[in-house]
Amino acid sequence: MAFTLYNAPQSTCSQRVRFVLNAKGLPFDEVKLNLLEGDQLKPDYLNINPNGVVPTLDHDGAIVIDSTVITEYLDEVSPDQSFTPEDPVARARMRALMHFIDEMPAAAVRVPTFNLAFLPSYQKMSRDDFVAHAESKPIRREFLLSMGQTGFPQAEMENALGRLRRAYMRMDTEIEKSGGPWLLGENISLADVAVMPALVRMHDLGMPDWQDLPRIVTWFDNIRAQPAFKPTYYHGSLLSERFPHLQEVIAKRA
């Protein structure tokens, strides 16, 4: 099986897929796209992913898009080291959690990400260039235009942080119900992989708002101790490694 992953080092969705590939020991070629330079909007890439986002998986010529779909696909074509429960009820719980994760923490984390990391790059653009850039995004157009070149207002930041906090609380409840240490119990699942990048991102931004939740602290330590974690988060995968100005932002929050 030959895998090629089109992705971006700092993309949280890309990190999900890299983790599963690494955990399964599946060799893959990595095509790194520079999202700020618009690599994901070039015609050649849009031909394989019309959404103009990362990641995209090419498996022996078969194209699979959307990180959640890709991780499930990988578990189906390479069932060794499975991240999917065999029990149908547990499988349904996992998929419901994955939907929740995409709706809540995975979406909410974009607001602090763009405000703190990406905004300075957009502020350097002319207004016309920024609008053209936003208009070129097939599924992120409205998000960028609502942010503008001044960033999301404080109220929207607080709303996003509140949604993230509710996600941590939901994780805590799920771990308590299952007996842990993972969301569904003894075995790590695709739901754990799905939520992992959001917590890594907030930790990297100096905003780990789960320190009062011991089960989440343990979960976070456990996910970072997984053998697949280090090769997934190679140097340059964290925003603080890509954007030097974040060091000052993080220091102010310390």
Automatic annotation (TrEMBL):
Keywords attached to this entry: Transferase
Transmembrane segments: none
GO molecular function: transferase activity
Residue ranges occupied by any GST C-terminal domain in the UniProt entry: 87-246
Residues covered by the GST N-terminal domain: 1-82
Origin: domain of life: Bacteria
A Pfam cross-reference name: GST_C_2
GO cellular component, one term: cytoplasm
PANTHER family assigned to the protein according to its UniProt record, in alphabetical order: GLUTATHIONE S-TRANSFERASE OMEGA (PTHR43968:SF6), PTHR43968
Name of the protein in its database record: Glutathione S-transferase family protein
Source organism (scientific name): Pseudolabrys taiwanensis
